[in-house]
Amino acid sequence: MHRYLLSDETWSETFEWTRVGTEAGITGLETWLRCVVSGHVDAVLSGDSVWAERLMVRGTPSFAFEGGALHNGYMSVSEIEAALEEVGTKP
């Protein structure tokens, strides 16, 4: 799903979830659709948005490190390991 959402932006114009799920190759499509339209997803995302605002996360991916360091954007494994060492946490 992640790959599909990032490679085809037409979903954000129509929100045709049956088509999106099918094209993304979701198995258990009916179960997934019930989840998407249940309102639970909106509640979870709303809570995540509150935390993102508090932490000043501006996009994905984002990495928050012990001590308050925040990195918005891609990090390679070696960059993550270096950041963890910098804050005294072993990878």
Question: Helices and strands in order, then pairings?
Answer:
Blueprint: H1 2-7, H2 11-14, H3 17-24, H4 29-37, H5 40-55, E1 62-64, E2 70-72, H6 77-86
Antiparallel strand pairs: 1-2
Helix pairs in contact: 3-4
Written description of the protein model:
The chain is mainly alpha-helical and 91 residues long. It contains 6 helices and 2 strands, in the order H-H-H-H-H-E-E-H. The protein has a two-stranded antiparallel ribbon.
What labels describe this entry?
two-stranded antiparallel ribbon; 91 residues; mainly alpha; 6 helices; elongated; 7% strand; 2 strands
Q: Which structural category do the helix and sheet elements fall into? A: mainly alpha
N-C termini distance: 28 Å
Helix content: 55-70%
Q: What would you report as the Rg, rounded to the nearest angstrom? A: 17 Å
**Mean of residue pLDDT values:** 86
- Beta-strand level of the residues, as a percent range? 5-15%
Strand ordering within the main sheet: 1-2
Taken from the alpha-carbon principal axes, the silhouette is elongated
- Number of helical elements: 6
Poorly predicted runs are none
**How many beta-strand elements?**
2
- What's the order of the H and E elements? HHHHHEEH
**Major β-sheet, in short?**
2 strands, antiparallel
